[in-house]
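Deliverable D5.2: sample structural annotation.
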Amino acid sequence: MTHARSKLKPGGIMFMDDFYEGPGGYEQNEGVMGAVNTFVKRYDYVYLAASCGSFSNVALTYEPTSALVREFL
């Protein structure tokens, strides 16, 4: 995520998958939610959207008022 952050254009949206921790995914994706939460706090990102269910997708940005984000939402 830190590497991808450096490539994100101003006002861009970062999409990720496998945002899940539960009985079925814990062995495969240990710590994914914790890592994303730490990233969000460390770099002042905000959650824009997340899908529901196992191995969800999540969208983040650091400019929630950008034109792209307004169009996305």
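Annotation notes: The first strand starts at residue 14 and ends at 19. The mean pLDDT is 86.
The annotation will be released with the project's public dataset once the embargo ends.
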